[in-house]
# Entry
Amino acid sequence: MNKGKWRGFPKLNVSKAAGPLSSIGAIIVGLLVGLIILLFANSSKAFEGFGMILGGGLQSSKDLGNVLYYATPIIMTGMSVAFAFRTSLFNIGASGQFMMGAYGAVLVGVLGTGLGPFQWIVALLAAMVFGALWALLPGLLQAYRNVNIVISCIMTNYIGMYLVNWLVKGTVYNQMTNRSIAVAETANIPKMGLNEIFPGSSANGGIIIAIIIAIVIYILLNKTTFGYELRACGFNRYASRYAGINEKRAIVMSMLISGALAGIGGGLLYLAGSGKYIAVEDVLAVEGFTGISVALLGMSHPIGTLFAGLFIAYMTIGGSYMQLAGFVPEIIDIITAVIIYFAAFALILRSVLKRIRTRKGGD
Amino acid sequence: MDIVYFLVQQTMFFTIPLLVVALGGMFSERSGVINIALEGIMIAGGFCSVLFLNMMQDTMSGQMLLLFAVLIAMVSGAVFSMLHAYASINMKADQTISGTALNLLAPALAIFLARMIQPSNVQQINFTNTFRIEKVPVLGDIPVLGNLFFQNTYITTYLGVVILVIAAIVLYRTKFGLRMRACGEHPQAADVVGVSVYKMRYAGVMISGALAGLGGLIFVVTTSTNFNATVSGYGFLALAVLIFGQWKPYRIAGAALFFGLMKTIAATYSAVPFLAGLPISGYFYKMIPYIATLVVLVFSSKKSQAPRAEGIPYDKGAR
# Structure
């Protein structure tokens, strides 16, 4: 046994886990724990708060639009982490790749005003390339120098954070506000009609782009030889090598695509036309770590990740309404953590289901 | 000379929490359980012990109070880590997932509870630092050595060194350590000769929880005067130190010291006349610890020695 893992980290079993059923079970447990916490914190307002969590994102079309807006970047980082998981690589460096992508987008968004209506496309491509290149380093180090990808990703997160601050200060810096200059109007992603469906919200074409990318990634992973090779390497590197698959290339390619996805996430957020600027602070981008939760909740499946991102964004909006009832928004994080914790039990659930099924078959 | 003393003292502040937490991670991983939850456990231990400091500082102070806080941090860290142990040992859960869940849970819970418990309703927990030792009696007067290691220090620094020695002895010189390593390398073989793999793994995770919790306290006490539900990514850095140190106690100590020194240079370059005079951006100095670690790893990773059974749930039936 134990042949199927890269050094240090095991192959994740989540993709074959008990399917959406276990996720739904975990969500129910998580929400129940949330309700108990609300009752414990303030029993008189607990059900009001719980209603906010469940229905806050549905209160108006503005809220629903903002769910889409919040979901977009974490769907992308989630897909980034999920993609690497499928090759058994733990890309904990999505945070750095996300920020590098954001910088690439803002750079083109501020300076590339001569590009006219193509500016946002070029800016988004720049985000993709910056993110991909930033993930290339840990990928190459893992493939050719056997440097544990978890460490190199943690290191490149910090290096990326400082590098982006440094670059922003040198190129697109607004000293008054200590953040990046606003991008040009033509660099913002078109609304694609979403501003009319969800008036007053920050919804924009980013979510549509994210959905298209999710479908493309799904096809790439499941319907092409290339995707099959990547998954085969994740499943058993030795068998794949024996079958003639170049595992080093698979690692590098997987990280490149993973980084590109995180980079696009950074681009989609900072080109959303919602007044986001890169703040020059020594803080790691939280979206990269939320992406891990999203990927795990989505069982490392591109489409699953899409729904997981929407779910977490929906809960976040509910959490912001919950503050009106006097609860701290961190309760949402607690619920999410409980959900992920119980989603980890999928293996047990699966074996129970299997036992029931075989027992039935025995009769 | 003063600048050297200052740098060495600063290096200790960065090194000791990394060392203690990475040693904790070592016990967990050598027993076969990946512990990516170190960050979360540090927060849990830091939260409980700093809350204790906050509540008790009117009745006690100084080293006695700190030692009690050390106990609280270790116990709370161990208890919190049981969530990870239960998921990964009994439930055979994916260890990366349950670790991630704990990392998400700890800061959220710390903020929620701090607001619930504190009358002021804020998430920061303040404490008065009465623990810094200006000069250790007698030892602090030794020329050079006294200045380097026995002035401007904390009792936790020596605790860290003691833990290193004990950890090395336990891992390599006791029956317990041998059995633990066996469970991380070949649990089936360990089970056949009568070692309870589940118990050893529980022990490994529990020790890692106690040490990570302690590391959380050390980090907060030596670098701040309040706790704000974060340990600034030190748990992840400790994970890097653990892998950098090849899962071996003294190499971990070396890795922690290396990283601590680099971090000190990054944090204090402006106070060192030679470095401050160079025409290099401050951002570059801030990147040095991470770049240097990568460079060292490029030349030292060819033969990596992770515990073989790490991350694989032990299934008695699959023997």
